[in-house]
Amino acid sequence: MTVLSCSGLSRRFGDVQAVDDVSFTIAEGETYGLLGPNGAGKTTTISMITGVLEPDAGEVVVAGQPMSTRAIAAKRLVGYVPQELALYPDLTGRENLRFFASLYGAARSRVDHVLDVVGLTDRAGDLAREYSGGMKRRLNVAVGLLHEPRLLVLDEPTAGVDPQSRNQIMDNVRALAAAGMAILYTTHYMEEAERLCDRVGVIDSGRLIAEGTRRELVEKLGERDRISLLLDGDLAHAAAMLGDLRDVRNVAVHGHGLDLVVDDARECLPVVLSAISSNGVVVRSVEVTEPDLETVFLHLTGKALRE
Amino acid sequence: MRQALLIALRDLRERARDRTAYVLALVLPLGLAGVFTLILGNIAGDGEVFRYVVADADRGVVATTFTDEVLRGAAANGAIQIRSVPTAAEAQALVDKGEATAAFLLPEGLTEDVTAGRAARIDVVGDVDAPTGTQVARSLAETYTGRLAAVRVAVAATVHSGVTTSPADLAAEAAAALPGTVVAEDTTGRRQLDPKTQYAAGMAVFFLFFAVQSGVTGLLDERRDGTLARLLAAPVRRSSILAGKLLTSVVIGVLSMTVLVVASSLLMGAHWGHPAGVGLLVLAGVLAATGAMAVVAAIAKTAEQAGGWQAVVAIVLGALGGAFFPLEQAGRALEVLSLVTPHRWFLRGLADLAGGGVAAVLPSVAAMTAFAAVTCAVALILFRKVVRP
Lengths: 307, 389
Ligand SMILES: Nc1ncnc2c1ncn2[C@@H]1O[C@H](COP(=O)(O)OP(=O)(O)O)[C@@H](O)[C@H]1O
Ligand SMILES: [Mg+2]
What we know:
The structure holds two protein chains of two kinds. By secondary structure, chain A is of the alpha/beta class.
């Protein structure tokens, strides 16, 4: 079942078209990654989805409820973890949670529950300003979980945290998705998107330029796994012979080496190596390249995700 | 409304942990009012009593009115002591020896001069070590001679009605105001506040503007700290967020004023007047201060900028409104300008309360409420920009 559907979302700030005709949906239990460099329009998109910002055009529907800046009912269904830490530094962790729990009408018992989920029970009585960066990040996430939302929106929730807190947050997200929550996750960390997200949308300059699972994206772009070989022996013969293998799509000769484009590098590497050695050619080195989202991104936008 | 309350309660919990808030709202106003009272306290007639001598060489009706009505009336209140001596030389000698604060020398022919419409003069010889007492004596004398007719009526009316007004107040009133005004003001029952109350009230209303600022500026803090985005994403109306901030200011304002009223009454002996009247004035004053500070906060871009501008506005309004010194000592232009300040109406309301019943505060309450309504409306419109989608 579809929990979030956005269609034709656009928003302009002065001369900047921050978000341009963005549409996507997220199903129950699905984790959707919005991937893009700084300034791509991720936060602006999220602000419209959470009812913080009114779109110039397009609409957002959360579990059947139309979202707007005044949509009280729709807002109850959404948990929001802003990119900037949004905590009251002079209140304790528990007081922060109690305040937001009361605003959302969540039960008091939820406060202790989410403290436990993010692993902050021991420090709940300390002022938020005394927390480490990672603990603040975890408290930031915890606020979004208080009212058991149908849709959880996390805007770069792991920006600048220690590996332990990052793992904790990612484990939390995985567990919530497994429990059926729809999750929208923005990041510019490629590894996070690859580990967490069922589907990924690539956004650049306000436009959603590609969407799908990692494999779908890779294939859609014609990106393939590659094997680069450095060889001693008869290159031309080796090239001809490898070109006949079923999984090998293309062979190019250069200097002392061969570049192969293959369907699945891990699967066909043993076949390739045994074919070469049985022809008396010596393998000096092997390099395997599997296109990841970074490659996809580079291909799509001509720029790296992070500089 | 429940949401606005929740937001205000959270704000208050946070402010309660902020020590500078207490300093601004309670310690500074009480401390400063105390200092003012100490420095100028002699005027109030507590502690040192002004000892005046009179040498009446005239013995006409103008001279005896001065000694019998003005001076003895004041002496009857215990604010000054009066002693008559036969000659100017004796009077001067007492001052020189430090046994009198100042001497009034009523010259021969004073009554004749006045009735003939000629300029009249009462000489005052003062102890250089008692400048305040001398100043008060001079004010009394100048008032009496310069604006004789009006003052005579005013002073007589006051003294006869048994109102306990210190001579300093009479002098200040008479010296600064036009004769007609003095008469008119006294007949409507308004009186000046005694100095202790004047300074306590002036400081309280002045610092009230600082006390309430943290509430309305909180919206800018929330924007800076990112929590505003979270409030905007929560199932809360934007108007509730704004209302919560205004409510925070009002609660802080009422609390700090209540503490100041009670503390200045107990510690300094200020006389604020009937609690119902004071309560109305405080509430209206708090609303007006909140409105003024909210407008400034709504115009500012950051909480820091707002704080700076708010201080300037609070000081300018306070000075214009007579929070530091009674307006009667200022010029006419200032008096007119002061009509737009809540401070002026707050202090006037207290003076009216001292002179009349609780209902006497209503004009001042109305003026401050109007100020609050206008500024809060402007602030709400401007604040929409801060929470604008
Ligand atoms: N409130 C705003 N006013 C003006 N420009 C904005 C505002 N918010 C975002 N932008 C601009 O819109 C673009 C997208 O920003 P944002 O959505 O924050 O990107 P991201 O979250 O992907 O880094 C950027 O060019 C940014 O400068
Ligand atoms: Mg962002």
